[in-house]
Amino acid sequence: MNEWAILSKAMIRERKDIILSILGGFIAGLAGVALFAASGYLISQSVFAPPLYTLIVLTSLVKLLGILRAASRYGERLYSHRATFSMLSRLRTSFFAKLIPLSPGIWNKNRSGDLLARIVGDVESLQHYFLRVAYPPVIVVTVFLATMLFTASFSLWIACLLVLGMLATTWIVPGIALLVRRKMQGRVRQQRALLSTELTEVLYGFRDLKVYGQLSRREQQLQQASVALAADQQRAAGQLLLGQSMHAFITFLVSWGVLALGAYLIMDGALAGVFLAMLVMATLTVFEEATAMATLPAYKQDSEYAAQRLTETVLDSAIPSLNPSCLLSADLAVSIDLSGVSFQHEGERRLAIKDFTLQIPSGSKTAIVGPSGSGKSTLIELLLKLRTPTAGEMRLNGVPVREIEETSIWAATNVVFQQSHFFRGTIRDNLLLNEKENSDEQLLDILAKVQLPNTSLTDAVYEKGENLSDGEKQRLAMARAMLRRGRLWLLDEPTSSLDYVTEQRVLKHLYEQAAEDTLLLICHRLTGLEVMDRIVVMEQGKVVETGSYSELMEQKGYFYHMKQIELQLIGEGGEQWHSQ
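User: That's the sequence. What structure does it adopt?
Assistant: C-alpha cells below.
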C-alpha cells in the first residue's frame, strides 16, 4: 500500500460530499465569471443610454448572479470541508488502528517525539490533499472550458490568448514552483519532527539533565532546532509567495493582452466595442479560479510526504498477519506449548531466545528464573503476540498462537509487566481498566490484598505515576491484574521493588486467586519458589535446567549455585545490618 492508495481510498469513501462540493464550486466559478462579465457589459451599455428595461434586466441579472455565486460558494465550502474533516477523521482512526498492534516493536524504530509528530502533524497535513491538490484542477478545467466557449463566441483570438494564459498558470507556474521546492521537500516536516523529538526527550529527562548539569547544553540544541525550523518555514513561505506572485503577474499580463487585442479587433471591425469590458472582466475572474494552482505543488509534496511517512511507520513495523480467526477462551485454564521457539530483535546479532522448548500444563504454576538479558521478558511478549517469533511454534490450548486473535489472548490473560504505565487521574481510574464494573468495596478489598490498605480511591495519580514509589506502582499493577478474570497469569518481576514480608503477603493472596489457573512467574529472587510446580532456568535465551524446587536443589546444578549465591548475599546483608 502506498501513499496514493491511502489518499484515494479516503476520498472514495467521501465521494458524495466531494461530488456536491465540485458541483458547487463549478456553479460558483461560472456564476462569478458571468457576474463580472455582466457587470462589464452593463457598464458599457450604460454609456450608450439604452432603454430602461435593458438596464433593469442587466441589473437584475447581476443581482441574481451575485446571490447564486454566494449560495453556491457556501455549499461548496460546506461540502468540501465536511468531506475533508471526515477524511481526516477516517485517516486518523485508520492509522491508530494499524499503529496500536505494532507496539512495542514500533518503539525500536521511531523515537517517541518523531512518532508524535507523525501521528499529529503528518495526519493533519493530509487535510490539504483534497482542498489544495485534488479539488482545484477540476474546478479550473471545468470553469475555464465554459469561459473559453463563451469567449470564443465573440472572438477566437481572445479565446486562444486565454488558452495560452491558462496553460502558463496551470503548467509553467506550478512547474517552476515545483523545481524551486524540490530542495525543500520534507525539510520543514523533518525539522518539526526533530524539534518535537528533542523537546520530548528534554521533558522526559529533565530531572536527570538538571542533576548531571547537561540541561543548558540540551537547551542550546533545542534553540538551534527551533531556529532551523523557523528558517525552513520562512523559505517555504517565500516559495509559496513566489508562485502566487508569478500567477498574479501572468493574470495581469493576459488581462492587458485581452485589452490590447480587443482594442485592435474593435479598430479592425471584428469585435463590437460594447463587449470589450465584458471580456476583460471575465478574464480577470476566470484567472482568480486558477490561483490555487500556484500553490498546488507545495501542498501536493507536503501531502505525499506526510502520507509516505505514515505508510513507512506502519509498514516498517508491521507484524505479518495470517488473519487469525480462533478465539482463546477466558473461562478455561490455558496450557502452553512452546516448540523450538527463537526470536531475534531487529538490528541485533544475537538471538534473544534460542530454540526454546517448554510445555506448561493448564492449571500449573511455573517460575522462570535466570540472569538479566536471558530472554525471560521477551517470552511473555511472544505469548501475548506483541512480537512474532523468528522460528518455532507456540500453542495455547493446542491452538497455534498465530491463528488466535490477539484481543482474545489479552482478554484471557492477567498481565503484570516490569514497567506498567499509569495515567493521570485517580487510583480508581487506574484500577478500572477492565470492561466489568467493580464496586468500591471490591476495589478497596483488592487494595488491601496488595498491601495498600490506607489508599483512597480518590487519591491523585500523576502522569506515568510520578507521585508513586516503585513499590506502590508494582502493587497497584498487581491490583489491576487481580481485578481481571482471566485464567492465564503472566507476571514479569511483579514484586522486585517490595520487601520480603510485603512480597509474601501479596503473593499469598495472588496464589489463592490463581489456585486453579495457569501461572507463569518471571523473577530474579529465588525465595518462595518452593510452591511452584516447576522452575525453568534460562541463560542466554536457552533452557539450561528445569524441574521442581527440590529436584533442582538435589541436582546441585545452575539453580543450586544461584540459590547459594543468594543465601550468601542475604547472610552478608543481614550481618551488616546487625553490625550497624
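The domain at 336-420+487-574 is CATH 3.40.50.300 (Rossmann fold).
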